[in-house]
Amino acid sequence: MNESEAIFTLESIFNFGKALASSQSQYDVLKISLLSLLGKLKISKGVALIFEDGSFKVVYAVGLKFNYGFKISSGKIPEGITKLSRKFLKNFGFKFSSFISRNKLCYLVPIRWGSSGDFVLALILLGCRDKKFTHREIEYINFIANFTALSLKNIASILDLKRNIYDLKMINEFTQSVLLKKDDEEIFESLALTLMGHFKVEGISVVEFDGAKQKIFSFPKSFEVKKSFLRKILHLDENLILEPAKFGFKNLSLVLFHKNVSDGRVFVLILGKRKENLPFEISDVELIRTIFIATINAIENLKMLSLNYDMKLAYEIQKNLLPKKLPDDDRIEISALSIPSKVVSGDYYDVIQLSEDEIIVAIADVCGKGVSASLLMSNLQASLKSFLLFSSDIKSVVQSLNKIIQINTSPEQFITFFICKIDLRNFVLEYVNAGHNPPILFKKSRYEFLEKGGAVLGVLDDEYEVGKVKIENGDLIFLYTDGVIEAMNSNGEEIGLERVISFLNSNVNLPAGKIVNSIKDLISSFSYGVEQVDDITLLVLKIK
């Protein structure tokens, strides 16, 4: 190689690198690469093609005109520069072979990427020339091919990064916007406007399948989804339909499915035709899926906010059902506490002054927790107060409660219930225990359980027995639900009834309010760091 050829080659490489450095797109890179090869090799015609969407698409051509692409198997493309002989062209389709022959193209330069050149990014086809390529020219061609591949990948990485930033910004803006929406319709409308604006689809529908129920949102309203279509898509075992036309769904571009793991509901996103019938790329589908899931999450969050509001409202209502003020009497002292494990509770207590000398005290524990237990508790409270308007006979009251609970609940629901009537003139306590934890009557030197009664409420047609005990100054009656004695520590050990009785025996002379607060502290200390799983209710009565 003489000195002028060496300078010319170095100058060509320098100019090529300088031109690539200023290129803004992959198309520019291939145009520069093609022109560099044509100039250096003194060839008058050529064409550059880039691999996009499963085929090779024309980017730039010199000395010939055409604007179509070719579907070529990348496995048939050679690794280096190749002479386009008739034998070689037999490996490709008629369209590609006839194009090569008609335009007198003689060489193929593959632009490959990967450790072993596994991925074909582009092709450069060159016209013919009289003499063979020299060794130096082949080195130059290989250099151009390698440098072109590197530049294409760098630009692709930059474009991917820009797209990812744009997509993340779009997702963030969408997520922020739907947080401000007040109902499902507004959220779905935001989804529709976002997808229609970004992907140029003519309309969208979202269908929510909840068992046999269907809820449909369409935007615009004219974008209708036929019922026959809905029946058909439910029977498809698909998560994604990229080409709906293959399933007989015309005028659609994409169908996307999402199943809620928590409750089994299925959401289906249906997109209308895209402008110019453009296909969706995999990255497009992932972006759509992310926005769709964000939409569903926003709707679920809206429901949770509404549910939380309803729960707080239910808590306030339930709190108002409990006695606001306990009887103020020189002969008796009463204090109570109720702590729900959830926002609302299935525990209940009540203190009702029947007359100057008679007080009703009741405590109950509804099977279950949360809203359903709270509703049943409210039913019990209303029924108890209604029955007491007509009769103060606690046996008949309990029997009436049992019947009403049986009528209004399913067989698996029941209530443990204890009621007592305290006669402060004669110092007599009458009680009925319907399957509840037996309250404990502490006297000066002993204690006893108040167990007489019958079955839990709501299960059996039972006869209830009335218990009767004499009470006197200094007596203490402790009523509680099972959350008190079943509170657990971090070792899984229950606090137990014996521990509570021992504590009460040692503190029986304290005022009722102090006893209640001390038991609360005892439970809190014992179960420190462990989540409360049951409602806790306790009530202390002291005869002065």
UniProtKB/TrEMBL annotation:
Gene3D superfamilies noted in UniProt: PPM-type phosphatase domain
Keyword Hydrolase found: yes
Domain PPM-type phosphatase stretches: 331-543
GO molecular function: phosphatase activity
Pfam families cross-referenced by the UniProt entry: SpoIIE (PF07228)
Keywords annotated in UniProt: Hydrolase
Record protein name field: Sigma-B regulation protein RsbU (Phosphoserine phosphatase)
Source organism per UniProt: Candidatus Chryseopegocella kryptomonas
